[in-house]
Amino acid sequence: MPSSLVRPSVVCALAIFLRLSAAKRRHERRRRRLRQLLLLADQFVTVHPASYCRLNHRAPILRLWFDVESELKQDFHLSRRAMHALQRLLQKDQDHGWGNELEVLIYVYWLAHGLSYRVVSGVFNVPRSTVHRIIHKVAQRIWLHLSLAISFPRAEDLHKVGRGFVDQSGTAVFNEVVGVIDCTHIRIKAPQQHQFDYLNAKGFYSITIQAVFDSNGRFLDIFVGYPGSVPDAGVMRNSSFYQARRYPPPSYILLGDESYPCLDAPICLITPYTEPVDRPGQALFNCHHSKARSVAHRAFGVMKTRWRSTLSNTLEVKPAFASQVVSSCAFLHNVCMDNGDVLEPDDNIAQDPLPPQEFLTDEETSGIATRDRLAALNVSVLQEQITFSTV
């Protein structure tokens, strides 16, 4: 090839190479600047959180909330007073523009309407992804702060709790009773793992909520999430209050139904006599025992009635999150009680069947002697009352 033709070709190739190299350098410089800007933005957001969305005050549900004269029960299943109390309990510094007030409204509305993210998104005019994040955030916050509303009574209040069970049961013998323990099942969808562990005796998948109640039906302690196939006594033996011997204190008593063993130790848990009974004193004891224990059935009934759309249907969430949802329902039950938001349980709420009675383990001591002593004392008190009334 003639040298006159080679020289322009080399020059052209060199020019193209230099142009591409310059373009590559400019691209690298732009990428470096972009990374620097993103780093600065992250630092700014960390120090000065952004309000990424504005509140739509024109949404009907928010107009209802901001109208302080309007009642909230129909939409939120909570009174306005209880809602304000809940917001105060969960109040903390927020890291974005929604704020604690709106997050709590969204969560309670979600509970009241069957856990539908789509429904809540439409009602509040909030993106569904944001609703999902808020729901899990508030549920986790309640889970971590259950003790703000659920706790055992102080030592100086135990006598008052005992007096409540005397009134509830109709016998002065139960003045040392400071709680009733019971379990109920909550339906869940079949989990992907360990399905048969969650299949209960009635043939549906469930988790359990174990609770200790006072004489007013207030939750004193909860243990949530054990698979439905585990009997009530097994749930109790794995719960933290039992393993730590935290309640009841010495010389005080818990009451439980026939699904629990009658115990003196490691905790004092007194159950009714097995039917049919042998003596009239045992039947009388069972009658008073049943009256005292009815607070547990009533409290579970109130909770399931208030959150019927959630707790009376199958929870379409994973078992771990289902435990947080159920725990928050118990938390809200106490918040409502503390703020005069009372509710009558629906008679149509199904009762759980009694599992077979459990035998004692090697670490447990029978409470039959204590039960016999209480039953005999109950007969003596009744005879004294009859004698006094005839004098």
TrEMBL record:
Record's keyword terms, sorted: Cytoplasm, Hydrolase, Metal-binding, Nuclease, Nucleus, Signal
Subcellular location: Cytoplasm; Nucleus
Coiled coil stretches, renumbered: none
GO cellular component annotations of the record: cytoplasm; nucleus
Tagged with keyword rRNA-binding: no
DDE Tnp4 domain span: 181-334
Main location group: cytoplasm
Protein name, entry field: Putative nuclease HARBI1
Function: Transposase-derived protein that may have nuclease activity. Does not have transposase activity.
Annotated signal sequence range: 1-23
